[in-house]
Amino acid sequence: MIAIERQMGSPMCVVRLSGEVDAVTIPEVREALDDAIGQGCRSIVLDLTEVTYLDSSALGLLVWADHRLQPCRGTLLLAGAGRDVARILELSGLIGVAPSVLVVDSVEDALIGLSLPVEGGEPLWVQSFEVPADARQMAATRTRIATMLAPLSLSESAVFDIKVATGEALANAVRHGSPRGEHDDVAIQVSAYDDRVEIVVSDSGRGFDGRSEASLDVFAASGRGVLFMRALMDAVEFARHAGGGTSVRLAKRRARSAEEVV
Questions:
Q1: Residues 42-50, mean pLDDT to the nearest whole number
Q2: 2-115: what CATH class?
Q3: Would you say 216 and 63 are in contact if contact means Cβ atoms under 8 Å apart?
Q4: Of the spans 22-31, 215-224, 236-245, which averages the highest pLDDT?
Q5: SS3 label, residue 91
Q6: N or C: which end of the chain has fewer CB within 10 A?
Q7: Which pLDDT belongs to residue 229?
């Protein structure tokens, strides 16, 4: 059974599935997703809470959805999968590799995340610094950023996500955005807002638009950095500078503590 919920004009919709999803029902699911995208849905929450069976045919659906959503910068959020269904998704090898397909614990978590803004407003504070484009500096830089964020009372998992995503941005800046090697500097700006934190990593290379060149080959030796950033953060934006170089903005939503509210 398939049910689609969407408010008129909203770019977000929920597609609820129930029962068994197999080679017989996948075409119907694909048609429903295609209709939703055609009607303007760019953030699709696929509710798997009531799905009791999922087989390998879902792999083809995820590949199709990823290819369908990438041109419009859309996202398919797989929400509420039970233990057995989640294991099949993991075995597919596409989760974390297909840039438009993400997994969340529940439909509620997905809707809360999609409804919160990740831009605008005045920052509570901003801290900036530069480090040499030296891979040996990356661990200390990640730790320095985590220390800056400590007063915000973020969860351990949120801090870990930020460290990994920032680490990928730093690695790209060092490897691909520093033509003079260690003689170049990488600039980092950390900003705290009421609803989010932002980290901007800037280099002096030739520029990069953020499009991942990685294939869906799970055995590829590299090319997953941007995919990790997009999977772990709530917003990822790339900007090229007129004078050369790239900035990547990473945003992660946060909840305000009781002390901040008071």
A1: 92
A2: alpha beta
A3: yes
A4: 22-31
A5: helix
A6: C
A7: 87
CA distance 139 to 196: 23
| The domain over range 125-261 is classified in CATH as 3.30.565.10 | yes
User: What are 92-111's pLDDT values in tens digits?
Assistant: 776 666 677 888 888 887 77
Q: What is the DSSP string of 180-231?
A: TGGGSEEEEEEEE-SSEEEEEEE--SS---------S-TT-SS--HHHHHHH
Ordered by start, the domain boundaries in the chain are 2-115, 125-261
Spatial separation of the C-alpha atoms in residues 100 and 152, rounded to whole Å: 29
Tokens 């997994």, located at residue: 103
What is the sign of the dihedral through the CA atoms of 165, 170, 171 and 177? positive
Position 215 pLDDT exceeds 50: no
Tell how far CA 249 is from the center of its chain: 12
| CA separation for the pair 256, 111 (Å, rounded) | 19
